Amino acid sequence: MNPLPSSQTATPVEPVFEVIDDLVPAELFAGARAVCAGKGWYFGHGSHDSDEARFWKMDLDGDKVFDAVWAHVRTRCEALAGTALRVIRQYANGHTFGLGGKPHLDDNRPGCYTLLYYPMEEWRDGWDGETVFFDGAGEIASAVRPRPNRAVFFDSRILHGGRAPSRNCPALRVTVAYKLEAVTGEPAASDGIRVNETSRDGAYRVYAVHVPSAIVAQRKQDELAGLGQSVRLPGFRPGKIPAAVLEQRYGAKVRTSVVSRLAAEAADSLMRHGGLASKVEVVNGGAAGELEFRIAVTHLPDLPPIDFAGLDLVRLTAQENDVRSLGISAADAAKMLQDHLCQQVLDFLNSVYEFPLAPALVEREFQEIWNSAAAQLQAEADHEEITAELRGIAERRVRLGAVVAELARRYEIRLTEAEVQAERRVTETAAQTRSRLTEARVMDFLVARARVTGRAASVNDLRGFMEG
Known about the structure:
There is one protein chain. By secondary structure, the protein is an alpha+beta fold. The chain folds into three domains: 17-182, Jelly Rolls (Sandwich); 194-302, Trigger factor ribosome-binding domain (Alpha-Beta Plaits), CATH 3.30.70; 308-467, Orthogonal Bundle (Trigger factor, domain 2), CATH 1.10.3120. It has helices spanning 26-36, 64-81, 213-230, 243-272, 320-325, 330-352, 359-372, 374-377, 383-410, 417-423, 430-449, 459-467; strands at 17-20, 42-45, 55-59, 85-95, 112-118, 131-134, 140-144, 150-155, 160-162, 173-182, 194-201, 204-211, 275-284, 291-299, 312-317, 451-456. The longest helix is centred in the middle third of the chain and has 30 residues, at 243-272. The chain is globular. It starts with 16 loop residues before the first strand and ends with a helix.
């Protein structure tokens, strides 16, 4: 028997798994019950993206009571995990008879954990609703009953699923999930390269990266050897140029190239740990010896959560007669109005998240914008002004792209490969399709939690969208 969906596989692990009874004091338990008896529930959540079975959900990010629950139990969970932990997401799931969850993995990355808390006031024998955990062969390894004020802490790579309550159960089966990840402090070194965090200020961090001279020398030797196979010099046959001659003619230039490539690799490594590079400097070793970089990054998981109370949007609707008078289709009008709504969300994110960016990232985006509009820009009289404007657009795109990717990770907004392939346009790469669809999902997620007011778009509004 294999209860896994076809798109998932269990990862062999020596899992952390601990059932914790009487998780919090009585007063905090009462507060948790009160929150989950509130009006924040909405329907349509599933165990994973391909799960057609849906149930109830309540977002709890920033909730003071459940922040206090985590603060109370954090030390114990970190002792079980053997590392400091941060909360990625916290939310409640609600199940009634017939609404169970499917077997799934919460995360397939090492260093990720789940704290599952049962804040119900009572749960009687015969009401069922166990959380079932499976072993690597898909067999049931453990079943945890949802007793009041009980929790289970486990490695997120363990396959599990929540069973629906029985027909006899008149109550809502509530589980509060804390999705957690290890705070590593320092990205892992590789191939003798050492990475040390030297300072931090909120989400802004600075790392020192040390590359041993032997690694730099080997990289340089490999590049010179490759160059010797292709370059032509008078008096030497192709591929027979002595190493000393290559060093004399090209050594300094090749070392500069190696240093640049190592800096980019170090920055990419930090980005894989959730950091967006804002500055890369060569501190020592640019010309010879051990190489040292100083890299400043914004650690995206440490960006503050969104205060949805400040997200006020206006949803415009178009009158059929106005659309017809402008000679545009209803579909085009709907797209313009949706773009207008999304633009408001992006403006909000741009105002909330401000952090420095690496000039190289902005320059690369600027060049793409410039190249795509080169013909139109030739007619512009003030090139200095238009260049400054395009650089501002490039910086905004890079920053918002990073923010959207982090929000998708934080709020578990995922795409299946089937969805990417089904929605892929002829002119797009798979990565571009994934980026476009992810942004659309994030926009939908944020709009659903914003304060939205509606009004009819005027003809001038529509005309402005057409011209813009």
